[in-house]
Amino acid sequence: MTGVGGQGIQLCSKTLAQAAVLEGRQAMLCGHYAGAIRGGQTDASIVVADGESKMRALPILPSAWAGFVMSPQYWESTREFLRPGGPVVVNSSLVDEDFVYPEFVVSRIPAGEIAAERLGAPMGASMVLLGAFCATTGIVGIDALVAAMKELVPPYRTEHVVANEKALRTGVEEAGGQSTSAWERTTAVSGAGS
To answer: Quick one: pLDDT at residue 186?
Structure first.
């Protein structure tokens, strides 16, 4: 997962990892962010394995199967880690139409416009993209994703729970169906790369 600090990358990565655990899988997460916090580079690597696999290493990845691009600003450093043929879900509200990479299966979701204009919750753009990412990859289901989000939203932010759930579910709808499956390809997959 990649984006700019303040876009919700770290919360999305925790939500994805927690959702995988709720579904009985194993998950490891490693967040990376610059000292600038807001506006600086923020990435996260999530490794998800089925319940039978034994994960024994930190999620420092030589390569990743799928990508989540909230902002194009730091895309190039993420692109280097993605394996050809993998799905890449991008926020087309911020990613120009010249974002063309034939080596990947790119899904363009206008997460910013959906969150701001349709849902009236501009801070929910990353949740829209997360819902679309999970629907596109099949890495976790929407019910686990919503449950994980509810567990992770801090008590002083509970006013965002309803909007976040709506954003996640809208992202799933926008994805229009699964284009690839995390669980048919391999028993241990990466939900992100950085």
So the answer is: 41
